[in-house]
Amino acid sequence: MFSYFLRRVILMLPVAFGVSVICFLLVQIAPGDPLTAIMPVDATADEQAAMRAIYGLDKPLPVQYAIWISNLAQGDMGKSIASGRPVAGEVFGAVQNSLILALSAAVVAFPIGIFLGFLAGYFRDTLLDRAVTAISIAGVSVPNYWLGIVLVIIFSVNLGWLPSMGAGPGGSQDWSWDWLHIRHLVLPAVTLAVVPIGIVARTVRALAGDLLTMDFVQALYAKGMSRGDVLRHVARNAAATALSVMGLQLGYLLGGSILIETVFNWPGSGFLLSNAIFQRDLPLLQGTILVLALFFVTMNLVVDVAQAAIDPRIKRS
Amino acid sequence: MTAVDVTVLDAPATVSGQGYWSGVGARLLRDPLTLICLGVILLLILSAAFAPWLGLADPYKGSMIARLKPIGTPGHILGTDEQGRDMFARLIYGGRLTLFIGLTPVVLAFFIGGTLGIVAGYAGGWINTGIMRTVDVFFAFPSVLLAIAISGALGAGIVNSLVSLTIVFIPPITRVSEAVTSGVRALDYIDAARASGANALTVIRVHVIGNVLSPIFVYATSLTSVCMILAAGLSFLGIGVRPPEPEWGLMLNTLRSAIYVNPWLSALPGLMIFVTSLCLNLLSDGVRSAMNVRD
Amino acid sequence: MSVTETLPDTAPDKGGPAQPLLIVRDLQKYFPVRGGILGGRKAVVQAVDGVSFEVKKGETLGIVGESGCGKSTTARLLIGLIDKDRGEIIYDGQDLGGTLSLRDLRRGVQMVFQDSYASLNPRLTIEESIAFGARIQGLPDPVGRARRLMERVGLSPDRFAQRYPHEVSGGQRQRINIARALAMSPRLVVLDEAVSALDKSVEAQVLNLLADLRREFGLTYIFISHDLNVVRYISDRILVMYLGEVVEVAPVDQIWSRQAHPYTRSLFSAMPSMDPDNRTLEPPLSGDPPNPINPPSGCRFHTRCRLAESACKTRVPTLRPLSVGSEHLAACHLHDLGSGHSKAGKDVLA
Q1: Do residue C175 and residue C93 come from a single domain?
Q2: Residue range A79-124, pLDDT digits in tens
Q3: Which of residues 125-144 of C touch B (CB under 8 A)?
Q4: B235 and B241 in contact (C-beta within 8 Å)?
Q5: ipTM of this predicted structure
Q6: Which terminal residue of chain A, N or C, has fewer Cβ atoms less than 10 Å from its own Cβ?
Q7: pTM given for the model
Q8: Which of B71, B132, B145 to mutate to test the interface with A (most CBs of A within 10 A)?
Q9: CB within 8 A of A135, min separation 6: which ones?
Q10: Residue of B nearest to C77 (CA)
Q11: Cβ–Cβ of A3/C39 closer than 8 Å?
């Protein structure tokens, strides 16, 4: 198990390297001089010269990359143009808020998705199955930023039940686990949960349907095992695949929350990102993307290792 | 938002050449849901394409006094937007840019990713390793994040959106086309063709492409819905189409300010995105089963 | 089609009748197996290891052995579908990679594969599939050629030319594959388990077709199979492979009356006998062949051989004639008086 883990970590390194290269290049592909892209417009010539020296902007790209990555290794992701504060601090605060949102959405989505998917797979080709299939297709087809607006219209504008903006009373940016704050979490979390409900339901439906028709299931029935026991066996067999889909979905939730956070003014990484884009704050953009992508890479690793722990066949392949 | 998840598609085991496409057509004709979706998509495309000749109101001409008129207002069947422009006209005209930016990247990625995947799958060795490891790096980004990162860096604009979305969809199509091609590459008829002295290009042209194209095509069609949503999402974020162009995502964004005044009006552009994306998904499912491509 | 000496447009003979059509010397192919923490090369599968043999003009050489013994790898090496690590392939006196180009080799050597369905492009009509190679080789009138060959292998061109592979039976598909191989007018055809997947009755028909074609066009065959009876029917000589090595080569009659290698002996005794009085007394070969990643030392068969002694574990036997000038060769210490095996020179296998 440990050697598998080690191998996966080592395989992850080139991917992480590639991710850092792409993030580095983001500033390079931005139109205009990279210097103006990473500095406030009103910077003086002296400040510009200092910055040029710090980042080695007059040197070839690989050297610039090396400088950038070594700064990164010391936790220095540059300074935000808009706020002048270090990017690292801003990003980590925001990512925390995003995680709260993504995990809440997962808590909503996964049980519902698994339940619906299992129902559909077990009662294949019935009306129930069709209904679930329709729900999951609608779920993966819906633009969730629009769904968020629709939910706001229903529950905030028309019914006035739930707040639509920010993470706490008065558009507060600081999170705490009390009802006043949780009220703000409900709409964005539910909105964000819709797509994964569809995807998880689809996956579990296919898994359950396939497994129930497999030979070993027939054998279990033939052995005289009860329906409930057979279902338990089937569930364990499906667990590894379902787990990997859900793990990936958790990563996607964090990425996918960008638009939802914009809709709900949720003070997370996506909100930060859209502010960075709006203000052309490229260091902040770069830092946020880098942190989110590395989180996603790590998530993949965790999923793979967890999957291998459940299903020993994976280790060998 | 929908993740770009890769399902490795098997090359169909029993495809034939003659009668294959007519068989696909016949199966499609027996599938009313798919036909309806096809109809809706065609209607959207045609009405967008011929919008100037449909006798619609000017989608750019606003009116300070006729702002945010509700749905059903005489003269403005779907009301007016925050600048008093006719919603119906803007929704129809909006299809032009939305569909163009929503579908073109998949077409471009189909050709680029398909080619890369076929080359990687056929050549194997270090060419395969080089292409596929690069693709792996892009898979480290959720598709939304990658699209926003590139568009955010490049800035708003139609071409920039097309570039960033094409980059987003090349890796998944490359991965599928590599998997399908490696599968075909291992079959004896490829060896037989090589043994007859044909060079790689001829083998690919005569023996590989025909056998990998339909699974890659079906996979690409399954991406159109995500691409639509993403494209409109970029405009919604303000890094896609620039105002005052009518585009559904951008309209959804600008109408957010009207949510307390005329809530359902402001949801209309999003409904268009939803209907289009739903039809694209169902159409893709229908095409998949009609072409006998299994997951 | 009239009876001709060779297929139309066959490349002319270069070496004369005494020159073997194919000489294989010390052929070797190892496949790297990826593994280990860095996914680097950790081990190699010794698929084909030092294989040498000759095929005379007009003869059929049968190659037998268990699955995984390197038969198919050898076949693919012979037509350059995979690159050899080492060794020589000499076709009609010309050395591949030296005076002979891969393209010319493929003009002279063709292959028929086991899986009749997988070896035909499902998107091409039968006529197109057969004509493809001739077209590539620039031979005149590829379509007419394809149609004449279809006629010759027993498929009416008018009925079958425009059909697709899934629309015909397995036996018909294998006839198509044979026609496809012959369309390039080869002199040597490698038949890799070409009849193994067919029903017994169809198998017999296709075998007869192969025998007729050989006679008619003066072809030379390498016939690979795991079925000894089929190999006996069609072959002039038989070559036995075990774990990537040649263990015995002999004319059919000689090997049928006397198997010189214990492995060959086991293969033959595993054959169902037609004669109730002639029961198999010898224990059948037990277990799977050892892993070709780490083949046994010395004689590779010693782990399964009932006559193995310490010499077999340490010394590698060489392929040598049973007596001076004999066409019967075996790689076993039993036939080498200087091998140190206690039963060397004694007839303990009979």
Answers
A1: yes
A2: 777 777 888 888 888 888 888 888 899 888 888 998 898 888 888 8
A3: 125, 129, 132-133, 136-137
A4: yes
A5: 0.84
A6: C
A7: 0.84
A8: B145
A9: A116, A197, A198, A201
A10: B195
A11: no
